[in-house]
Structures are given as structure tokens and as C-alpha cells.
Amino acid sequence: MPAHETLRELLRRVGGHVAATSLNRSGEPPVRTEAEARTFAVDYVFPGEAGGLASSVVDLRTGEVLREGAIPKEALLAYLR
After folding, report:
1. I want to staple 57 with a disulfide (CB 3.0 to 4.6 A). Which of 21, 46, 48, 67 is the partner?
2. What are the tens digits of pLDDT across the range 25-43?
3. Predicted TM-score (pTM) of this structure
């Protein structure tokens, strides 16, 4: 859940859920600043710094943690067993 109030309002208006891809290209480090985000061809960048870790990505078909993010792998695996 984002801490940015404008993003939170957007989520409320669309029913609380959104699916989106990461801005960074596959294999590259995550985009963490507004300046980095503006180097991509995007329509809008919410102002401010992202900070924190990238999100965790789990293949629910196999239970494999594809990218460890803010939630440690061990914590994710406990829910997948």
C-alpha cells in the first residue's frame, strides 16, 4: 500500500486494487527517485522519492520466490507451504 495520499485516493477510486509492472527494465536495479523515473517514457510521475525495497515477486504456480523484496523470502515461504 503506497504512503502517497494521491495514489491511495486513486486506489480507492478504482476499487482498491491495481496491477502494474515495474518501471525498471528486467535485470536492472529498481527505480528509486523521481529523476530516475523521468528517464523512461512515462505519461506521469508522482512527485517524491520512492525509497524502500522493491516488491517481492512469487510464482504461485511453483511457490518460487522470484524476487525477494520488503518481505523476507522465509516469511513468504511460510505462507506458501
Report:
1. 67
2. 777 887 777 788 888 877 7
3. 0.47
